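F.,

This is the one I mentioned.
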């Protein structure tokens, strides 16, 4: 049986890296998308390739439609299909709402939200004719409940949740499942600027008494990509250790 192919955006570090690694280890072809983190992407590629896994890399700014189109076309040319799309690329910015410039607002919306629109729309050119596909969008708990000093970030992540629900209804008849993962506080480099005292406080506020790991999110993504989730669509799954319960 032919391998299935997963395209993971923002896959050079953190959650994206963990997803790309786990999928490759579970017999997927994986296209590792990156933009600025070429060194990290190539290190990941070399590690996975040395283990005999089927991977490739592609540099693209997923906030730009033309670059996304070239990337998806490359994925099809390289692996002959696109079965799973993981929209993971994103940035985090913190600022008082009244101090957010239009440029900062646009940067967050373009990177976090427009990238999902561009990549999903292009991937569907291939998924709809084949009448199958899995789209996994990465949001955040702050998209569910809002985060103070992160209005632009929270807005972009909330919009991804709305897109997931609406698109799941539209694509159901094409046998394409669209789901969303809304991670809690995850130990990635996004936490580098947070003090140890604050991190300890976040742990104490989490019923499971620990922060999440990128692998916690990767395992959820692998389930959503599998046939075990074929009757699951339009859902928001939040691995957050109980930090947010709604």
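My design for it:
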């Amino acid at each position: 049986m032919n391998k299935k192919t997963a395209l993971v955006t923002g896959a050079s570090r953190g959650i994206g890296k963990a997803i790309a690694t786990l999928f490759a280890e579970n017999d997927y072809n994986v296209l590792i998308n990156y933009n600025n983190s070429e060194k990290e992407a190539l290190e990941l590629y070399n590690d996975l390739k040395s283990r005999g896994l089927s991977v490739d890399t592609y540099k693209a700014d997923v906030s730009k439609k033309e670059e996304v189109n070239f990337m998806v076309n490359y994925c099809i040319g390289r692996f002959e299909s696109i079965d799973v799309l993981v929209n993971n690329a994103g940035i985090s910015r913190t600022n008082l709402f009244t101090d957010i410039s239009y440029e900062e607002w646009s940067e967050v919306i373009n990177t976090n939200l427009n990238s999902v629109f561009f990549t999903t729309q292009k991937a569907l050119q291939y998924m709809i004719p084949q009448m199958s596909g899995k789209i996994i969008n990465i949001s955040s708990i702050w998209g569910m409940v809002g985060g103070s000093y992160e209005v632009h970030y929270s807005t972009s992540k909330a919009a991804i949740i709305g897109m997931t629900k609406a698109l799941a209804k539209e694509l159901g008849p094409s046998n394409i499942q669209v789901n969303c993962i809304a991670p809690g506080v995850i130990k990635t480099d996004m936490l580098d600027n947070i003090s140890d005292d604050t991190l300890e406080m976040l742990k104490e506020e989490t019923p499971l008494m620990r922060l999440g790991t990128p692998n916690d999110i990767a395992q959820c993504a692998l389930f959503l990509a599998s046939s075990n989730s074929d009757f699951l669509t339009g859902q928001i799954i939040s691995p957050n250790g109980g930090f947010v319960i709604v």
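Residues 172 and 184 are 28 Å apart (CA to CA).

Talk soon.
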